[in-house]
Design a protein that fits this description.
By secondary structure, the chain is an alpha/beta fold. The chain has four domains: 5-140, Jelly Rolls; 146-218, Glutaredoxin; 229-341 and 471-561, FAD/NAD(P)-binding domain; 351-465, FAD/NAD(P)-binding domain, CATH 3.50.50. The strands form six sheets. Strands 10, 11, 12, 13, 14, 15 and 26 form a seven-stranded mixed β-sheet that branches. Strands 1, 2, 3, 4 and 5 form a five-stranded antiparallel β-sheet that branches. The radius of gyration is 26 Å and the shape is globular.
């Protein structure tokens, strides 16, 4: 049987007992099923798994491992199955087998969503249990998904980050240190040169899969109806996008969220955020994004990951968005929350060392790669400050480099004080990184102190780049007006000539966060003039939903008038 610290310390919250009154309330939404000993009710990978409430007898919850199944827990009368995948209707992680014959209530995912949206008591109980169960499963280290890779492989890091940030359990096998690697390579007929290698669901072998291919194999996304025209499509699941999804779905809109990688955006890779309202002890970006994702799903938003928008068809309504897999989805309104990425410095060899010495995030995965070593952090914003403080806890020394004369203009004071007080951080002002050198991975870096022209070259193999911001707007092509840096202009920032060039068709001016296309909005880091703070992004996402309602109302009126004009006169 699996032993787990989270299960031992928070068992009552992970596996609470339902009262007789609560079971009675659930009966109206459920089907009663008689069970037989030894019967397998659910398999890993099954979609639209039903939540099972034990009325009599018992059930075994079994987690897959590379060598078989291990028992997680036995559910008895009053216990219930399920975790976050049950609510979303996506592929699940466990096998459920009948130990002792009896009966269960079976509740499908649609009825489960209705329950958590309407019954406050059961909603709190179910949601807390689902979240903790997913956390518990991930922390066991057990999974039928196996990743064979190396700390010297950029694509191995990419896949580890993708799975970790999406809270998906996997077994990591390092080819450089694991004694059983050769046997695994022979068993699955692959070579070390093929890494990273993913063994999906026990038998499917992928050599360096894309994030999208991995998500497809694991069934991480809900199945979407291509014929549906959504009320709102949110492109990007960072703080702004998730906020829009929560408020839109909670107010009854049919919301689809498209995320290219994992929830949280740049904020999702922050090790600790301490100035966000309501979290005085701080919270990691991944945890904050995970909570927001759960909220959006609770209210019925469909969230798809590893599903990148590559083009907006803006010449007609409903608007159409082409995805990287070739599919097309349609929506009456669109909120662009695709965010920004750190600027790539004009350095030779930069792309060569990406993921093997050069990083754009500072999570626990990157921290393990450079533990006990000397590193460089480039950038003067809060993200760079958080990274420097976090990495100073495990690295030998952190060199922080900024082109400015200090940090006061771009960083929160509490972070500046920590950097100043840390004996493991040296701040280099008026300094630029000038060269990266190495063979198959980064081995040395050079920098220049501008005032005196002093150059240094140090044997440092890890550099974290967190400088500036480049908007993710290529997929929009020429659909909306942008500023000279490619950020989207909205509302009062639009000039009359912008609207004239775009042939703005309405009598009213664009709403506060509306672009030069009616019903298309931009929020968060992708918007021109935005404040690069999480709280600001969350506020923009939530505020924007009221303008979405107005745009949908205008569209409904226009459609009614069009139908009226097309209808033949009454005899």
């Amino acid at each position: 049987m699996i032993t787990n610290t989270l299960l031992e310390t928070r068992r009552e919250q992970m596996f609470p007992k339902l009262s007789a009154a609560q079971v009675t309330r659930l009966e109206a939404h459920a089907q009663r099923i008689e069970t037989t000993a030894g019967e397998v009710l659910v398999q890993p990978g099954d979609r639209h798994r039903k939540l099972l409430v034990v009325l009599a007898g018992s059930l075994e919850i079994l987690l897959p491992t590379p060598s078989g199944y291990e028992l997680l827990i036995v559910l008895e009368k009053g216990d219930f199955s399920g975790e976050m995948s049950t609510l979303r209707g996506v592929s699940g992680l466990s096998r459920i087998k009948v130990r002792d014959a009896g009966a269960v209530l079976a509740i499908d995912d649609q009825n489960l969503r209705n329950i958590v949206q309407t019954d406050a008591e059961l909603s709190e109980l179910f949601m807390r249990a689902f979240i903790l169960r997913r956390m518990g499963i991930v922390s066991t280290g057990n999974s039928e998904l196996m990743l064979l890779g190396s700390s010297h492989s950029a694509n191995t890091l990419r896949l580890r980050e993708f799975l970790t940030r999406n809270s998906y359990p996997y077994v990591s096998v390092d080819i450089d240190s694991d004694p059983g690697v050769q046997a695994l390579l022979e068993r699955f007929h692959v070579a070390i040169e093929d890494i990273p290698i993913v063994i999906c669901r026990g038998d499917r072998v992928f050599k360096n899969p894309s994030n999208h291919d991995l998500a497809e194999c694991l069934g991480m996304n809900p199945q979407l109806d291509a014929d549906v025209v959504h009320d709102l499509i949110v492109v990007g699941a960072g703080p702004a996008g998730l906020s829009a999804a929560v408020y839109g779905a909670s107010e009854g809109l049919d919301v689809l969220v498209l995320e290219a990688s994992a929830p949280g955006g740049q904020a999702g890779s922050s090790s600790r955020i301490e100035n966000y309202l309501g979290f005085p002890t701080g919270i990691s970006g991944q945890a904050l994004a995970g909570r927001a994702l759960v909220q959006a799903q609770k209210f019925g938003a469909n969230v798809t990951i590893a599903n990148e928008a590559v083009r907006l068809r803006c010449d007609k309504r409903p608007y159409e968005i082409e995805l990287a897999d070739g599919s097309v989805t349609r929506g009456h309104t669109v909120i662009v929350a695709s965010g920004a990425q750190y600027r790539r410095l004009p350095l030779e060899n930069l792309s060569r060392f990406s993921g093997v010495g050069v990083y754009y995030a500072a999570t626990h995965l990157e921290a393990k790669l450079c533990q006990g070593e000397e590193i460089v952090v480039v950038g003067g914003g809060n993200s760079a400050g958080q990274a420097a403080v976090f990495l100073a806890g495990s690295c030998r020394h952190v060199h922080m480099m900024v082109r400015a004369e200090g940090l006061a203009d771009s960083m929160s004071r509490y972070l500046i004080r920590r950097i100043e007080d840390s004996p493991h951080i040296t701040l280099h002002t008026h300094t630029e990184l000038t060269a990266l050198e190495g063979t198959d991975r980064l081995e040395s870096v050079s920098w220049l102190h501008k005032p005196d022209g002093q150059a240094q070259t140090r044997p440092i193999g890890h550099v974290f780049l967190m400088t500036g911001a480049v908007p993710n707007t290529k997929w929009l092509q020429d659909c909306v007006a942008m500023d000279d840096k490619g950020f989207i202009c909205t509302g009062p920032d639009l000039h009359p000539e912008d609207l004239t060039a775009a042939r703005w068709p309405l009598n009213r001016p664009p709403h506060l966060r509306e672009t030069t296309l009616p019903g298309i909005f931009a929020v968060g880091d992708v918007r021109s003039g935005s404040v690069k703070r999480i709280a600001s992004a969350v506020g923009e996402g939530s505020i924007c939903v009221q303008f979405v309602h107005r745009a949908l109302g205008e569209l409904a009126i226009a459609n009614t008038l069009t139908r009226s004009l097309r209808s033949p006169p009454s005899p």
